[in-house]
Amino acid sequence: MAFLDVENVVKDFGGLVANNDISFQIEKNEIVGLIGPNGAGKTTLFNCIVGYYKPDKGKIRFKGKDITGFKPFQTSREGIGRTFQIMKVTTGLTVHENVMVGAFLRTEKRAEADKEASEIIEFLGLSHIKDYHINELPIAIQRKVGLARALATKPELLMLDEVASGLNHKETEEMVELLKRLNVEKHITIFLIEHIMEMVMTVSGRVIVLDSGIKIAEGPPEDIVKNPEVIKAYLGERYAKGK
Ligand SMILES: Nc1ncnc2c1ncn2[C@@H]1O[C@H](COP(=O)(O)OP(=O)(O)OP(=O)(O)O)[C@@H](O)[C@H]1O
Ligand SMILES: [Mg+2]
Q: Ligand 1 atom 18: the closest Cα is on which residue?
């Protein structure tokens, strides 16, 4: 039994098939990357898994349980945490309060949520900005707050949608270290969408590639970078642009 089992998932937006019969599995403790050109269907696939969208066809199982059609708060309770490509943090709240919102999924006690938020904020090195309002911060930091909030829900599976986007080289390296620590020390399985190849290929044990809603490849990063179909659909174009 796979930890996450995605079977024949289809998501059709009125004729635009954003996810076309997608199947793959993720085992516990893996770090798996999801790559592909803009509009390939990566975020849509995340949204189908976490229940932001209901797939038109197919099944999603998490730890053996059929979670197809679950709502986001339900998949969150099952142990799936996610961050958003476009930030959905609550702008009226401070960083600390945003992270508390995540912690409230697991506890009703304010003092407990407060303590957990402080611990996570410290773990992510965000203590110096904990009292800032979200809209006062750069987007890249906002994404990190999104990560803190997702962590506060105590996920077993953490799904990250371009969490390193906008980070500089050093910050990207720090993010890689952070994800490895979450994986090794906190035993969190990670599934990440990323356009920064040096990051996704470094951190992932396995990579899945989407193009126009179809899964075109899956394998270890060293095979993916050599795969002619992947180079044609995505990597060649990006490398040519020098990204
Ligand atoms: N709610 C929606 N309604 C209609 N079409 C949508 C919706 N969400 C996504 N799409 C379309 O589905 C396709 C896949 O979009 P998606 O956001 O999943 O791509 P992506 O791989 O995450 O791209 P990017 O790398 O730019 O984030 C695109 O053509 C997009 O315009
Ligand atoms: Mg996307």
A: 41
